């Protein structure tokens, strides 16, 4: 990954949502999650809902442009109705799992039930094989067998380094002499296993003569988790996964490929998850419909031009976390409790002590350019900025959608389907339409 990033464009100010399902919805639709009911958090196994089936995804748009579309890895955007699943959302083929986390070898969901599919079929032959290896091998196979008459879109979503922290010994042994905690070493080893897989995929692109015509877009879907024994560390940023702090939302990202007119540099341009949809469509030669939140950043990335955005919304959640945050220029306004506010210090120092911030206020203001670690709340020293930023955030709230159902429906219990995570027990929402913003 380091080689690809250094040869391409490293995105130093790239943002995602605080957790996985909202980030994936933003990437694939170009809409802020709060506009499409995805603002509350990750989808659960018995949740009778999903990413609204009425929305066209990136995969659908690329199919319209003539692409073969393949998905490999973690879906996590709903499965209770088949219409929520990948092969009904613009993907020709799907190889992976529906829910958020699972055992990397047995493929048992962390919520119960076997969860692995090849298209619509349960794929028990994958049992005992490490997920990262499975996904790499399938990606290489897709590249090897691809008919290059048509272009290819491969949406590869490794679940590494999501919990549980499991990794083959050959990668864990790489960190046998490293400092830090056992869980941190496991986390690093899982990333190394993924890194090796990405190397194999890059080699396959070269072997089959596709590397000169390929663009690789890489991003994490949220910051590292800090709770319990998950191994994450976002040093020197504050907070982690599930929070509105920079540590939960600012993520590693890069773009690689010969189509980049300027490469080998680090871009400081502001880029948000919703921008991936129109940016990828633009790079593929298409255009996107008006009304989405994402902006086309292809020239920003490929030519080192200025960012096409000056602001973005971290999230608006008025029913679950009851918080919101917005970035305008260098300034970030947080309303409500953004979540776990710890800084974790040196990730390789097992004796390092977590530092907890001062008591969190209902209104906080930070200059992210000057203070990326969010150590100095400016709400009392620069209060004049707050009303304008509140007003901007309020305008975004005019398009706030009701969140999708968070209820639990036991009719979806895998025990009702022979111990397998299975669609077919709810009715997909095919009528939803995102609301327009109404300026006040």
Write structural notes for this entry.
With 440 residues, the protein is of the alpha/beta class. The chain is built from ten helices and 17 strands. The strands form five sheets. It has a five-stranded mixed sheet, with helices on both faces. It has a four-stranded mixed sheet with strand order 8-9-1-10. Strands 12-13-14-17 form a four-stranded antiparallel sheet, covered by helices on one side. Helix 4 packs parallel to helix 6. The longest helix has 26 residues. The mean pLDDT is 94.
At a glance:
With 440 residues, the protein is an alpha/beta fold.
Keywords:
single chain, about 450 residues, alpha/beta, 5-stranded mixed beta sheet, 4-stranded mixed beta sheet, 17 strands
Rg is 21 Å
How many beta strands in the DSSP annotation? Answer: 17
Helix content: 10-25%
Mean pLDDT across all amino acids: 94
Strand percentage? 15-25%
| Category by helix and strand content | alpha/beta
Span between N and C termini? Answer: 45 Å
* Unreliable parts: none
The SSE string, one letter per element, is HEEHHEEEEHEHHEHEEEHHEEEEEEH
Write out the strand line-up for the largest beta sheet, numbering strands in chain order. Answer: 6-5-4-3-7
**Largest sheet descriptor:** 5 strands, mixed
Distinct helical segment count: 10
Shape: globular
